[in-house]
Amino acid sequence: MINLGFCNLVFTFSVRNGIRTISAAGSIILALMFLTSCAVNPATGSANLVLMSENKEKEIGQEEHEKVLASQPLFEDKELLAYVTEVGNRVAKVSHRPNLEYTFNIIDSPDINAFALPAGYVYVNRGLLTFMNSEADLAAVLAHEIGHITARHAVLQQARGALASVASTVGGFVTAVATGSGYVGSQISQVASIWAQTGLSGFGREMELEADQLGAEYLVNAGYDPSAVIDVITVLKNQEDFNRRVRGNGDGYHGLFATHPRNDTRLQQAIAAVGQLEDSEITQENNERFRQHIDGLIVGNSETSQVTEGRNRYYQGLLGYTLVFPDEWEISETTTTVTATATDAGSLRIEAQRLQGYADPRVFITDKLGVKNLQKSEPLSQYRLVGHTGVTVSPENGKLERLAVIYFGPRAYIFRGEVEDSSGNNQIDELLLASIKTFRATQRGETPSGRELKIKYVQASEYFDFAVIAQSSKIAEYPEDTLRILNGYYPTGAPEAGDWIKLVE
Q: Is the entire prediction scored with pTM above 0.85?
């Protein structure tokens, strides 16, 4: 048996009766080689198997950018966008692909995230910007996403997905090659869905670590302190720890920290490997300008994003969740339950039940709720929450019932929707299901009144105390913890007199 390595892949040959043969999977990959090629990764210098040219990469990036613009609201602040673009281009110019035309965008979302599309499209959520404390922090986030672009991580991920699919569909692929059908073209067309699944959730430990190291290198080249990578990781890791402690959900931004802890040895080594600037060599440290652009930035949902989500939005303050009920449905609530009703149409009731051990949500419905005949059964996956839903007949009144269970923190939330009007049951059921799919955790700073909360910079006095400031804060939940996280002093610590601090008003 002989192994042949080519383009980071290994092919296995067998020798039988003096004749060398290659496995079926190897034959397929070799066939794929005739349609693709090895390319030197512009960021790492290593050889990678890719399924598209750079021109095709640019074409896909443009197509997917248009889809993002059609589905995600942009934050309308021309001065802030110009500033983010300026910082991003400063980093991009010293990257491994400086000739790409980079486009930077701010998504009007309170979620803490950022992502990038192939060939130079970078997106940062407004919610992530509120956690930055310096221009170097902002540059570190943008450099990380630029690192994904320069290393062509989306393209490599697509190629690996194509090869995995090839290996599992041997006969079909051979037929496709033999008949000249567009197998490779169809794989390229799927890069958007692959990116949508991985862009926001991350590319895995190795690629994320590589993006961190590339980002640190670009920071050094641009004149920023590379330790900003660690600073950003620390702040966002604190936010993740806090969210897990109070809500049972520690999900957050995939980039920079999701794949490694703040003290990860490999991360420290990766950043140290690019070098360290002396104080005199740090040429980009204009934090006064950074504060000018972040001052007044909305924390939590903006009025625009809340209107987009729906006008009949309900907030459960004690349990920390929110959802949108159908327009004009009347809402009534108790301490832990809520019911929305429309006369002669239907109703939707939500109650909470503490989980006793974990079971698949579908099993919860059958075993805990005793429903065995669930129709239109389907899993739910929304806002990083999992659940299951379906339709059954209520044993109490014989009416059609939309049933769902969604896990959030230590509780299972049970949805029971009744359809009153049997003649229009499909339409009402669609309304019920659409409402259930808007269920999510209340975002920090999000308020039922829709009044926007904004960042305001002040200088700390000699006796500055987060606990005292929190007493008069407009932040509805955990104001002291939230202010500490926003400023990088969580769980303890205090600024020195004269330091600039972010308040929320």
A: no
